[in-house]
Write a structure and sequence with these properties.
CATH topology: Amino acid/polyamine transporter I
CATH superfamily: Amino acid/polyamine transporter I
Largest sheet: none
Number of helices: 18
Helix content: over 70%
Order of helices and strands: HHHHHHHHHHHHHHHHHH
Number of domains: 1
Strand content: under 5%
Number of strands: 0
CATH class: Mainly Alpha
Structural class: mainly alpha
Radius of gyration: 22 Å
Bound molecules: phenylalanine
């Protein structure tokens, strides 16, 4: 059977870049930058990009492209038992997509309620009470919130129709959404930086605080942010690269994806902080008072700031449309990674596989649409990102660096790429990245045992651990048949 192919190189780049650029860029990145010392965070962030992000991206691109397989069979080609790394990556992706799609659902809701900026004067109450109907603790699940559930279903229908024909449908979608989102983004950017008071926001955002560099936590945050953003460790980039011709350039593609993502994130920070500066100045309060994190930033503080602008409805719709679009491209990339593997493993039709994966994704997202949904999201997101994702990164480095041979994969990369990568890459994959990631996990673990994450009850913490351990155990138990290795040599 002929393998799926991207129609052009640009389409592949669009798909990879839009998978990387998502809620991580507009939500997490600006807040982290603020939290960890403003402009000084950029330095660890950029270092993480160069020494770990791009090397791992090269690794995943090379693996998928050379072996022409999705995550499971690509890793199994190195050593049969390594199939579990691939399965684990996919399970992690599945868990992430189940809540990521819910946040996409909130964005869809906000796109519509932007008409007439319906959150009014109290966007906080609007978000937590009117939209989420958030209960007072994770112990009170109560029931499903209808609007969120409906938005979730809508989101999944969109996801289904972008992956149902594999690269064919994905190509059509990204060829449209990439330029589309870019134009919207540029309009929003110009608007934000020309608002009165935006300068104060930007200064606040970029003012370096070099003492932050001495704090281990800043470095940890920078590395995990880069991994999450570049979508490595989920099998996504392996799957996407496996639809390239084996002679396609690798290192240039990795640099383009890495750099584009980082530039986008930094500019997203301009939008966020420019607008917050404007809000602070129009309310005559210091900017510290208006900054917030996570869901609070995109769905509470930002709506408030938007409603103070001239043409508030228009710019609100614009902002949430950007959020929906970038979340959407990331969401279906996770599904595509899973579909790719199942297509290789079964004889089922792609459309049927996609439908089943989407239905399961929708069902497992229901818990996040309950009145306690936000709490569940917070717990699961924390455990998955702090442990599972990082563990897969370490395992991939070991599989490629030590068992397959970093030199061997690098030789392949250099054969097909314009930018030749040096020996440093072998060291990065064999030593540096796995060691840094191990340190990150170790530090995180000690924190975990000192105090329960965000003071959640013990059972919720257990649930977090279960979300890490059970997928791993299942991945480990899935048998792997011998696969043809004829593709290994180029
Ligand atoms: N990179 C995406 C973001 O920053 C999230 C994502 C992770 C998407 C993994 C796909 C795979 O939002």
């Amino acid at each position: 059977m002929q393998r799926d192919r991207w129609p052009t190189r640009l389409t592949f780049l669009f798909a990879a870049v839009t998978s990387a650029i998502g809620l991580g860029a507009v939500w997490r990145f600006p807040y982290l930058t603020y939290k960890y010392g403003g402009g000084a965070f950029l330095l660890p962030y950029l270092i993480a990009l160069v020494v770990a992000g791009i090397p791992l991206l090269i690794l995943e691109f090379a693996l998928g492209q050379k072996l022409q397989k999705g995550a499971v069979d690509a890793l199994a080609s190195i050593k049969r038992k390594f199939s579990f790394i691939g399965w684990w990556a996919l399970f992690i992706g599945f868990i992430v997509i189940s809540y990521y799609s819910v946040v996409m659902g909130w964005s869809i809701i906000y796109f519509f309620t932007s008409i007439g900026t319906q959150w009014g004067d109290d966007p906080k109450a609007y978000f937590f009470n009117n939209i989420l109907h958030l209960s007072d603790s994770i112990n009170n699940i109560e029931g499903i919130t209808d609007v969120v559930f409906i938005a979730l279903v809508a989101g999944w229908i969109g996801v289904y129709f972008s992956v149902w024909k594999g690269t064919k449908s994905v190509s059509k979608v990204v060829n449209f959404t990439t330029p589309f989102a870019l134009v919207l983004f540029l309009i929003m950017l110009v608007r934000a930086v020309t608002l009165k008071g935006s300068m104060e926001g930007l200064i606040y955002y970029l003012k370096p605080n070099f003492s932050a560099l001495l704090d281990a936590e800043v470095w940890i945050a920078a590395f995990s942010q880069i991994f999450f953003q570049l979508s490595v460790g989920f099998g996504v980039m392996i799957a996407y690269a496996s639809f390239n011709d084996r002679k396609e350039d690798i290192s240039k593609n990795a640099v383009v994806v890495g750099v584009a993502t980082v530039i986008f994130s930094i500019l997203a920070g301009f939008i966020i902080f420019g607008t917050l500066g404007f809000m602070a100045s129009s309310q005559n309060v210091p900017i510290e008072e208006v900054v917030a994190s996570g869901p609070g930033l995109a769905f509470v503080v930002f709506p408030k700031a938007l409603s103070l602008m001239p043409f508030a409805s228009f710019f609100s719709m614009l902002f949430f449309l950007i959020l929906v679009t970038i979340a959407y491209d990331s969401a279906f990339s996770l599904v595509e990674a899973i579909d790719t593997v199942i297509v290789e493993k079964t004889k089922m039709k792609r459309e049927a596989i996609a439908l089943i994966v989407c239905i399961f994704g929708l069902l497992s997202g229901i818990i996040f649409t309950t009145n306690a949904g936000l709490y569940f999201l917070d717990v699961i997101d924390h455990f998955i990102n702090s442990y599972s994702l990082v563990a897969v990164g370490i395992l991939e480095c070991i599989a490629v660096g030590w068992v397959f041979g970093a030199e061997k994969l690098r030789a392949y990369v250099n054969k097909v790429s314009d930018i030749k990568i040096g020996r440093w890459w072998d060291y990065a994959i064999k030593y540096f990245v796995p060691i840094v990631l191990t340190i990150i996990v170790a530090i995180q673990l000690t924190k975990e045992f000192k105090a329960p994450y965000e003071n959640y009850p013990q059972w919720a913490i257990w649930l977090g651990w279960i979300s890490v351990v059970v997928p791993f155990a299942i991945a480990f138990l899935i048998p792997q048949k011998n696969i043809q290795k004829k593709n290994i040599e180029l």
